[in-house]
Amino acid sequence: MAVTGFLKRMRDNDIIQSDFFSKFPLPRVPRKLPPVIPAEQVITIRKGKGSLDRKVPIAPRALDWLQRYIEDLRPEQLTLESGIAVFLGRAGRRIQRSALTDLVGEYVRWSGVGKEGACYLMRHASATHMLKHGADIRYVQELLGHQDIKSTQIYTHVTISDLKAVYRRAHPAAKKSTES
User: Residue 105 in contact with residue 111, Cβ under 8 Å?
Assistant: First the structure.
């Protein structure tokens, strides 16, 4: 921060003798969030898997809800400690993963889908649906932020029933055994 830097420089130049300023933290002024540009339909995930940043596509409907949250709800929760975190907890700080998991888990239960789970359920469902509908596994790997393709391959086991159906329908050896 500018104030701390100024005081350090004053101490280094023997203008002040004490480093009293190091004993109390100064509040950080939150940086401005990057604008959400609906036409782009891409968001930046900051410090995702492996603490890496990456850009991922987002559906227009989800983007609309995100924009609404940022413009209407987030400002009500904003504090000096919010920083550039998009999703804030009740105290105005970055929402903790465990709190987000609990919240999403509640919504999953309330939805009546009959499945247990939370955030990972959404990741799993997205990856599985994309693979079932023909997405290349390397694109799904990138979307999920996996360094190793083996991490993404766990989602392919769910589509084995589809593979069996395609095999029975299209493979010559399978056709002959069902015709006999």
Answer: no
> How many C-beta neighbours within 10 Å does residue 73 have?
12
pLDDT digits (tens, 9 = 90+) for 64-103: 999 999 999 999 998 888 888 889 988 889 888 889 899 9
The pLDDT of residue 20 is above 60: yes
Any domain includes 105: yes
The pTM of the full predicted model, rounded to 2 decimals, is 0.61
Residue 89 lies in a domain: no
Among 166, 135, 162, 140, which Cα is nearest to 153's?
140
Q: Give DSSP secondary structure letters for 138-174.
A: HHHHHHHT-SSHHHHHTTTGGGHHHHHHHHHHH-HHH
Q: CB under 8 Å to 176, separation ≥6 — which residues?
A: none
Q: Which residues constitute the domain of residue 24? A: 1-28
Q: Which phi-psi region, left, alpha or beta, contains residue 88 (left: φ > 0; alpha: ψ -120 to 50)? A: beta
For residue range 106-129, list pLDDT tens digits in order: 998 999 888 888 888 888 888 988
Taking CA 57 as the corner, what is the angle to CA 65 and CA 86, rounded to the nearest 5 degrees? 45
